[in-house]
Amino acid sequence: MKNHELTFVNHLGELRKRLIITLLAFIVFLFGSFMFVQEIYEWLIRDLNRDLAVLGPSEILWVYFMISGVSAFALTIPIAAHQTWLFVKPGLTKKERKITLAYIPGLFTLFITGLSFGYFVVYPIVLNFLLSLSKGTFETMFTAEKYFKFMINLTLPFGLLFEIPLIAMFLTSIGVINPIFLAKARKMSYFLLTLLAIFITPPDILSDILVIVPLFVLYEFSVTLSKIVYRKKIKKQQTDNNIIPLKKTS
């Protein structure tokens, strides 16, 4: 009983250590991003043909920290993934360590790809559509806080959604899901992804399609990757158990 308690305490201590390192990395990236926040701000509003208003001095600081926070979050992803890997490393075999370590660059790459898709594709379409509704009717004025909240809420989810294929691969490799499950859940997944796309885009069929199609492609890509990982896993189990697969007879 004491050994179990000591092991549990050791795990908690290790988890605490990994969380602290991740938090410190985020803080370092946050202040690093804040040093260049003016350049980032100017780049983000480069195509906006209007000035952004602020309702008070504190709002300027809030906007800068909001921009720096998203940048720091993106930069912290590889660190957080590596610390997670170090935490689970003792329970993995040598081969599993190499495989899981290879996921870390992919997490960061897919997150940046998702952010880019949201910012360069979805965001301009949604913004232009909403602005077109106000022509001849309203005089539009943006506050910096609301403008960047709108931008972040529209782009950040895509950074997370683009992680789906890699998460599917990882969960398949550890046996949580398999391609059969993903195939059976296709209809429900399509329905949920459609609802998500409609929720984050304006009531415009073109905008919905531009978001729904990539989400469906991501899901099918996840199923394909899951099949590849699952086949390799089954083949390895057969090899380890000295099982020779039967050849199909014509």
From TrEMBL:
Membrane topology qualifier: Multi-pass membrane protein
PROSITE patterns: TATC (PS01218)
Subunit composition and interactions: Forms a complex with TatA.
Similarity comment: Belongs to the TatC family.
Function field: Part of the twin-arginine translocation (Tat) system that transports large folded proteins containing a characteristic twin-arginine motif in their signal peptide across membranes.
Listed name of the protein: Sec-independent protein translocase protein TatC
UniProt cross-references to InterPro entries, sorted A to Z: Sec-indep_translocase_CS, TatC
PANTHER family recorded: SEC-INDEPENDENT PROTEIN TRANSLOCASE PROTEIN TATC, SEC-INDEPENDENT PROTEIN TRANSLOCASE PROTEIN TATCD
Chief place of localization: membrane
Organism: Peribacillus huizhouensis
Entry keyword set: Cell membrane, Membrane, Protein transport, Translocation, Transmembrane, Transmembrane helix, Transport
Top-rank taxon, per record: Bacteria
HAMAP family: TatC
Annotated compartments: Cell membrane; Membrane
Residue stretches spanning the membrane: 20-41, 61-81, 102-130, 150-176, 188-205, 211-230
